[in-house]
Amino acid sequence: MGIEAGIGTAIATTAGLTTATGGLTAAGTALAIAVNLAISAGLSAGAAALSAPDQGPRKPSRTGNIKQPLSPHEVVYGSVRKGGVIFFVSGSHFANTRLHMCIALAAHECESIEAVYINGQLNELVAVVPSDGVPPYGEYHPELGDEYIMYVPDTGHARSRFSAFNWRLGTATQEAIPGMVMDCEEWTVDHRALGICYFYSRLVYDVTDDSKIWPSFIPAMTVRMKGRKDIYDPRDESTGWTDNPALIAANVLETLLNVPRERIDTDALIEAANICDETVPLKGGGTEKRYRCCGYFSLEGEPGDWLEPIIRAMAGTCIEHHGDYYIHAGTWREPEVTITDANIMGAIRVRTATSDRERANVARGIFASAESHDQPTEFPRIIHADGVTEDGLELEMDINLEFVPSSTQAQRVAKILLLTAREGRTVEVGLDLLTGLDVKPWDTVTLDLQTMGLSGLFRVIEHKTTIEGGDNPAVMPTLTLREVSESFYAWDEATEEQELALASPVIPGSDLEPDNLEYSVAVNSSNAAFFPGTVTATWEDPALIDFDAIEVQVIMHFQWRPNSLTAWSDEVIEANGEVAPGVGTLALQVIDEDFAGSSFEFQGHVIERVRVRTRVTSTSWSDWTEIEGDLRAPLGVSKTFTPYSSKTGHKIGAVKMVWNPPADITPAAYEVEAKVEYEWKQGANPYVAATYVENRARVKGKKINLVLWDKGKPGGSTQFQNHTLVYARVRSLNGDGTVSEWTNL
């Protein structure tokens, strides 16, 4: 597909999404839930997460974008990598060689955009303003202010000339992006996307070769971002960004479910927030917070479903009690009340775990974080060994912990949920009024019912008031208790923490790598553009049938000067390109289009490296297949020769050698060599003339004290005289064994 036709198709498929002033359309979603019963019903599901952690469907990916005319708003908490909804696409310039695209990330103000990924690769970005005279502006534009700032991949990367980015964080007063307004006539100063955090990309295509940089036409672009920043913390009465799940749960109640702040119990919230911020040791050293929460959800479906993954991330609960909401994080709480036969006023109902799901002895499930390459990934299974022995087989419980940002936290949470579901009996009991009023949800109580032989430690998971007594009705608190143990929350990182078995995004194996790589160079001695030459790489595609592209990288060193000057300057350019499967070759122009001038001269072309690899998917690659190119010799600094007059063993002397790496290249290692002429003798024997060469390969660093020791000569006490150091030299060494010319010191 040609560039012009491709952009036209993209615009057509997103018709109706180009109005950004009011944000995206929220399909069937209301932020305010007016009926309190709807809130309570939703929270009941969240409160039951420990007793029956029901799991919703997994998200297919955190690393892609979607295009559709209507989409519900998304809410982002903590730090996540994600794509979003493409809500604006347009082309500009000659033959539509510039593609402008806006991606909605969140329907609220966010803290920051931390990083940008293109086709799964992290791109380090640098800020550029028009007065810099570099991409994406190219020429010096002092008339444009710094508000025209854009962000481009770091200098030296080919994509710095073919892509530029900016974003808005979703404030209520944000302005349109000036660089986009200047470059895209369909986007005006009135297109502000108020309240929408969005990402803007501008991609530049070569109209003569639409596979040169972006063979898939529109690359997959995602960001790592920090989400909501309006989260209230009652501990210091501040408002800002956090990944504390207790505070996030309170924010969902207040901002999305319209629960007034005064109805969220402050003491419980402070206690839960402090528990989440506690540190726990890690097996490999260091610590992490006990509970963190990082994820996002769409504002659709049951409101209670929005809370559940947040509550589950801290193995906690959110319970409505007498009109107030209590948020708790999973931890052991000492019992405060003892319930005996004397306190019983109503029926007692006891239920034990009966289903295989409740009696599970193995917990498995997913989490998502940077360590899992931002994809939902299975954490190590938690196995209750005694339970497996008792049941005679493994019974698994699936737990979705996609809002948990580390495998170690996921393991700790999974253990709590597994043991609570398996070991806990549930007891419903009616109490006298005074005792019932003395406890509240999430308290731990001691149950000591002698008449039923029922005793143990229990947690209050539900507290309601009923009317009992027939002709003589009385108010009776009824508690639902869940058996609990301090061992549920105990964690020994030395014996319980398991290493995450994770597939690397680099997939090893020669069957995935391109093979038989060769290259040729066509150099330019002069050119009207800053174009020192072209490197043509050829290879054989891997046998893998289905893959995205072959990526090619070339690094060339050279010297240049304008025709009007006599002094030469050193320069290095890294050129990158990619081609679709089945092509097998790429003529990669080593060019920097941002140098202005009439014509240039070039000399001293040196290829540092040519390499290719298979991009299997947007998040996985093969290893590089590479050829080390010509190497420049090191830069000599000094040598100091110290001759020995006598030594035990045939140690003739030592040469201290110092050098610097060649300009703009760091070789894999260096090879050093020294040659000496001398005379030697042992005992009363006469002196004998000799020559010796000492060679040392794979030297790291930039200096060495090279001892000249001829181990082929006899040992013992030896005398030396008339030393002459013939040479001391060093050369660069590539990883594949190729070498540069020698540099004599």
Structural commentary:
This protein is mainly beta. Among the domains are: 3-27 and 70-227, no CATH class; 231-328, no CATH class; 506-628, Sandwich (Immunoglobulin-like); 635-744, Sandwich (Immunoglobulin-like), CATH 2.60.40. The longest helix is centred in the middle third of the chain and has 17 residues, at 407-423.
Note the topology.
Blueprint: H1 3-13, H2 36-47, E1 74-77, E2 79-82, E3 85-92, E4 98-106, E5 110-118, E6 121-123, E7 125-128, E8 150-153, E9 163-169, H3 178-183, E10 197-204, E11 221-228, E12 231-233, E13 238-240, H4 245-256, H5 266-277, E14 279-281, E15 287-289, E16 295-298, H6 303-313, E17 317-321, E18 324-328, E19 337-340, E20 344-351, E21 362-367, E22 377-378, E23 382-383, H7 385-391, E24 396-400, H8 407-423, E25 426-431, H9 433-437, E26 444-449, E27 454-468, E28 474-483, H10 493-496, E29 506-507, E30 515-523, E31 526-527, E32 533-540, E33 549-562, E34 569-579, E35 585-590, E36 600-617, E37 620-622, E38 625-628, E39 635-643, E40 646-648, E41 651-660, E42 669-681, E43 688-699, E44 703-709, E45 717-733, E46 743-744
Parallel strand pairs: 19-26, 21-24, 29-37
Antiparallel strand pairs: 1-16, 2-11, 3-4, 4-10, 5-6, 5-11, 7-8, 9-10, 12-13, 14-15, 17-18, 20-25, 21-22, 21-23, 25-28, 26-27, 27-28, 30-32, 31-36, 32-35, 33-34, 33-36, 36-37, 36-38, 39-41, 40-45, 41-44, 42-43, 42-45, 45-46
Helix pairs in contact: 2-6, 4-5, 4-6
Low-confidence stretches: 1-60
Strand content: 35-45%
Q: Sheet bearing the most strands, described? A: 7 strands, mixed
Radius of gyration: 35 Å
Please tally the helical runs, counting DSSP H or I stretches of 4 or more residues: 10
Please tell me what the overall shape is: extended
User: What is the mean predicted local confidence, pLDDT?
Assistant: 81
Count of strand segments: 46
Tell me the distance between the termini: 58 Å
What oligomeric state best describes the polypeptide chains here?
single chain
What percent of the residues sit in helical stretches (DSSP H or I)? 10-25%
Structural class: mainly beta
